[in-house]
Hints:
The protein is mainly alpha-helical. The protein is built from 21 helices and six strands.
Amino acid sequence: MRFILALFPILLILYLMVARRWGAARAGAAGYLAAMVLAMAAFGAGAELLAYAHTKALLLAFDVLYIVWMAYVHFRIADEAGAIGTIGSALRQLTEDPGMLALVLGFAFASFLQGIGGFGVPIAIVAPMMVGLGFAPLSAVVIPAIGHSWAVTFGSLGSSFQALMAATGLPGELLQTPAALMLGGMGIGAAVSVAHAADGWRSVRRLWLPLLILSVSMALMQYGLALAGLWNLAATGGGAIGLVISVFLAAHYSGENHNKQSIDSRAVFLAFSGYVALIAIMMLVQLVPPVKNFLGQVALQVEFPALTTSAGFTTPAQTGRVIHWFSHGGAILLYSSVASFWIYRRTGLLRAGAGTRILGDTIKGVLSSSLSITAMVSMAVIMSHAGMTDALAQGMAAGVGAAFPLISPWIGALGAFMTGSNTNSNVVFAALQQRTAEILAISVPWMLAAQTTGGAIGSIIAPTKVVVGAATAGMEGREGEVIKKLAGYVITLVTLLSVISWIVG
């Protein structure tokens, strides 16, 4: 009964978004209210616990929204300057094959962005670019969402992997190899899924060789860097090698009716300059210690006490999400936006009144997504503190016994879906996976690899991430369609992962 009650808010959101086609803001609010009522009535959450949970939720929501707001601003500046259209025209000169375009942008480029930034940035940046290339908004969101999934654990300079180590107390040397192998296998699956999402099975059959070359090369690069102990650069390196290889591959898969024309190299350079500034600033802040340490001096940090429900479930005392105001992913996007605006203004690409238009469009564009993200995060934090998340995982694990390796990736995926991130899923469920594997005499490193890989894949269907993509691709209010489309790919990949987990466990 506790398992069913804990599952109800999630099922309610899915029903409202997929079956009733509610927007994420309304469905998220309904799920939040359901979780709060159940937390008090059935799980013993008191007023103090709920007050602290809401405070923590607001900090986590801001952590996400800082990225959403600034990513939208960055896109609007590029769009106002005509950069999106220019890049689209240039890429069409490289290839007109929709599957190949999807692999270049939605797989290689999205993976690279996940490596150096993460936090929804790959979808927020690539989705509108793909709309500009002529992809349907739904496909434009789905493709980079799937494409960057395999790079989530080692992405964001390894923040999710760091959480895995912190939650279990195990060293990276023990965990990095199985994690890199599982994630690399999912990278091949992600490439196939991207090609399929772009143009169906005919695209997969036509592009089987380039997608295999691309995905295996990226997986091997990530594996090599992880094996060398450079797991914080593993996803970035994988994405970078993918970008280089994909450009050469695209020249050989340019489309049947491709008619190459001359390219205005100066216009293309200027169009890309905003994204070059983004990548350069991200790498400067994240990879240069003096810069990162200097910008990271100012931070918002809140200490939360241990909290216990009347049913006896305890959330230990912990530090809330630390927000580094000037080295945060949102801050990096803000710096990049300022740099992009200056470059485009200096080169005459931005017309008079551009700043006002960009600001106005941003406010209108992010209002709904901001409300929905706040509701979703609040629901997830309340469920975690009330013991509802634990009840879900315990029920799933207890029901399968020795077949636990089959269910392990699903627990990771569930945690990421609920909390919106693989990092949070690792924090919540990694210790549970570790202890269950020990009791059942199953390989702990492989089960933790299944946890974080399942979480990486599951994170792309989290409503908070879906909202990010929908907001930047003009699909506000249609998030249910995105979830429905993504669900098939996520279920397929996690099922494949379950089989792998069963074999190696």
